[in-house]
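seq:
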Amino acid sequence: MKHLLRYITGTRVLGFCYARQDPTSKPIGYSDVDMARDVDDRKSTSGVLHFYGQSPVSWQSTKQKIVALSSCEAKYVAATAAACQGVWLKRFHGELLGHSDGATELRVDNKSAIALMKNPVFHDRSKHIQTRFHFIHQCIDNGEIDVQFVRTEDQLSDIMTKALGRVQFQELRRCIGVVKVKDT
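struct:
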């Protein structure tokens, strides 16, 4: 309880400051996972973060519904959740502007998961993953999602999934746009 109260006290002056964005900006998503960190049920926690330009517009941290058998599978499931959200954001943005162009970029820090997403030949090795998680293949094939590798050090959604040291936490917080918005 003490830690929670310290956190609230230390963050009550923080928030997001949104600047005017170029209307042609495309959403950029980040997805990450903490592999089986929950010691009770061994389920992983997915973190998803989407930006338009430099501004975060959507974020979530949720426990996965399945127990992943590998870090590749856990990252694949997290990326699928990010793809669903990214496709929705792209369509919503398209409805507001009357047009939608280009794919939503999704940044993932696991090359095996990216290969699984892009290569349908790997399906034989991934049949145990529920069919609904193969939605990301369709998104990539349709050109709605463009999956890119990002180094672990540059993975902004780490802040949503892991307990970080103070310096790393503050750096990631700054990178996602959290700033001091009022004086105490």
